[in-house]
Amino acid sequence: MKSLNPRFIFLLSLTLVSSSFGFYLPGLAPVSFCEKEDAKECQKDIQLFVNRLDSVESVLPYEYDAFDFCKDTDERRPSENLGQVLFGERIETSPYKQNDDIRWASRWDYILVSMPHTNIQWFSIMNSLVIVLFLSGMVAMIMLRTLHKDIARYNQMDQEEAQEESGWKQVHGDVFRPPRMGMLLSVFLGQGTQVFIMTFITLFLACLGFLSPANRGALMTCAVVLWVLLGTPAGYVSARLYKTFGGENWKTNVLLTAFLCPGIVFVDFFLMNLILWVEGSSAAVPFGTLVAILALWFGISVPLTFVGAYFGFKKPGIEPPVRTNQIPRQIPPQSFFTKPVPGIIMGGILPFGCIFIQLFFILNSIWSHQMYYMFGFLFLVFIILVITCSEATVLLCYFHLCAEDYHWWWRSFLTSGFTAVYLFVYAVHYFFSKLQIIGAASTILYFGYTLIMVLIFFIFTGTIGFFACFLFVNKIYSVLKVD
Q1: Domain segments of the chain: what residues?
Q2: Cα–Cα distance for residue pair 33/97, rounded to 1 Å
Q3: Which of 271, 390, 419, 467 is the most exposed place for a label (fewest CB within 10 A)?
Q4: Are the C-beta atoms of 328 and 174 separated by less than 8 Å?
Q5: Highest mean pLDDT range out of 208-222, 296-310, 328-342, 424-438?
Q6: Which N-terminal residues, if any, form the signal peptide (predicted)?
């Protein structure tokens, strides 16, 4: 009798183990159907549902039976989550039945055929990632070599040579001088931290398949719930930085952190919802849902923000590595490229270059009603965006410090935050070149929701650039010998 191949035994064991301990991710578990219904294994009837009617000439969705046709005599609405309500996904039963002639393996073909550029997307995203990684590596290499030489040269010079030398060492007594409007900056940074953590967790869960497109509304629901629960880090970061800036009006700081940016988003969203309500669109959020959102905001997010601010103000301010002079140093004349506005404008180009391809498909998903499922690539682009914003901001911050301009606090935030301006310009280009929207209501809705995305993206990217520059400046001045 022949002995069994050890490799065959291993594969057989692996198959048995995987079949015993296998599981389906939420939203991806299939449902089995058969001719005779079995409550434990399969179902007999396939219930078809419809969600809404869309048009390429309007961003106003309507309920499926809003035009007195395709009505189902037995109307039953399944339960809808928060994300479905916010996107206008009014699920209803359909009067049509399933087509038994379509094979099970071919049931998604009509969706795949309706999505153009599917193959092009893979090549474009990979090409963009390679270019951005290459540029990021070059920036990192230049920064490390140049900084190493600067620190070695500055630490070897005596006091008389240092007075004649120019460079970033000369502003060590002013580089940690508190910025103007430190209250507003700390509020933006607190909100940016909240958005950053929310985005990271949401994309990570979506990448694992827990927020798949098969589970409608799950992505938006997860983002809203996370934003509500992340009020504590927002309050802590805002309070800690405000105290570092020397601020003492802690009540105003906490209130602005809890209400400024969320209030702007809610007012914009409420005005857009009024337009949807007047137009009779199914995307209009019901009054009860608006009350529920306000309850989540005031009942959970705001108290958590106060809790985070309490612990933030109990902590001492972040101690700078060098002392700050009492008299501010005069800033020498700057060249065109080291002036604030040109530097800020240039700073957002490279981060935008790594997202504009994905941005095209995201906008297609939102406005052209195409399914988006490339969450793995989107998470990689998110990581590359964080790296690119950090390196571009640190590089420009280094050039400005070498030119003895020590006003880096707001500039570091605005440099990477300017990527949001390019996002708005691209959204305008997308509106006129890709969409066929007509009507004042649809146009107002498009730009109203675009402004919400731009504001969130602004504080998100600005926060990344600020903290990267903050760590960079603290690091280089902590290793510098200052008399």
Answers
A1: 54-93+178-319, 346-483
A2: 14
A3: 271
A4: yes
A5: 296-310
A6: 1-22
What's the pLDDT at 400? 87
- pLDDT class of 6 with cuts at 50, 70, 90: very low
CB atoms near residue 274 (< 10 Å): 11
Which has more pLDDT, 74 or 188? 188
- The secondary structure of 142-180, three-state, reads HHHHHHHHHHHHHHHCCHHHHHHCCCHHHHCCCCCCCCC
What is the model's pLDDT at position 77?
66
21-35 in b/e form (b: 16+ CB < 10 A) is: eeeeeeeeeeeeeee
Q: Across the strands, what pairs with 55?
A: 58
Q: How buried is residue 436: exposed, middle or buried, by Cβ count under 10 Å (0-12/13-18/19+)?
A: exposed
Residue 452: the pLDDT is 94
* Residue 245: alpha-carbon gap to chain centroid: 27
Residues 274 and 441: their CA atoms lie apart, in Å, by: 11
The whole-number pLDDT of residue 1 equals: 39
> What angle, rounded to 10 degrees, do the helices at 218-229 and 182-208 form?
140
Helical spans, DSSP H, in 325-483: 340-347, 349-353, 356-367, 375-402, 409-417, 419-433, 440-478
- Report the b/e string of 352-378 with b at 16+ CB within 10 A: bbbbebbbbbebbbbbbebebbbbebb
Distance CA 262, CA 459 (A): 12
Type of residue found at 268 = D
State residue 331 phi and psi, 5-degree precision. -85, 125
Q: What are φ and ψ of residue 323, in 5° steps?
A: -80, 155
Share of the chain above pLDDT 90, in %: 28
Q: Say how far apart CA 350 and CA 131 lie, in whole Å.
A: 10
- Predicted confidence at residue 341, as pLDDT, reads 87
Nearest to 390 by CA among 196, 205, 125, 185: 196
